[in-house]
Design brief:
elongated; 9 strands; signal; six-stranded antiparallel sheet; mainly beta; 2 helices; Adhesion_dom_fimbrial_sf; single chain
Length: 169
């Protein structure tokens, strides 16, 4: 009987040690705007630089005629204020600020610049454009041309690929 009383007294004395703990669970998230839509004419954009003569691409830095083109992002939801384009691809081996020519012409690369040619866009560079509140779109006005980073270009074909990733803020 004493053993039972002792066990009962022990259990009663240890009852305050068994307690419940209050727990707070914090659940977080974020509501974001749906993305803008890349215009179908921008998705697989082809910019024709035309033909140039190797005589126009003799000295380092010589370039052909600039060809203007636009990249268009549209249907941006309300709350989206800007769109950023990141330009990626294969850099030219002679000039890392240009895109590599995968055609047969040697010593020729692709130069991408702002429409006024004041800013050169190189591989992994970005360009940010505000969303027009009335049209809910962003237009990226760009120019492209063939140029020779080193001089002494050779006759042949010219082809270069530039990838663009768009992010929205």
């Amino acid at each position: 009987m004493n053993n039972k009383l002792f066990l009962f007294a022990f259990l009663l004395s240890s009852a305050p040690l068994i307690t419940c703990a209050d727990t707070t669970i914090i659940v977080t998230g974020q509501v974001i705007a749906s993305p803008c839509v890349v215009d179908t004419g921008t998705v697989s954009k082809v910019v024709n630089l035309g033909e140039d003569t190797k005589q126009n691409l003799i000295n380092a830095g010589d370039g052909g005629v600039w060809s203007d083109f636009d990249l268009l992002v549209q249907n941006c939801p309300t709350g989206t204020s800007s769109v950023t384009a990141k330009f990626t691809g294969n850099a030219d081996t002679q000039d890392p600020t240009a895109w590599k020519n995968s055609g047969t012409s040697n010593n020729v690369a692709l130069r991408i610049a702002s429409r006024d040619h004041a800013t050169t866009y190189s591989v992994n560079s970005t360009m940010q454009v505000n969303v027009d509140n009335s049209t809910r779109s962003s237009t990226f006005p760009l120019s492209a041309r063939m140029f020779t980073p080193q001089g002494n270009s050779t006759a042949g074909t010219f082809q270069s690929v530039m990838n663009v990733d768009f992010t929205y803020q």
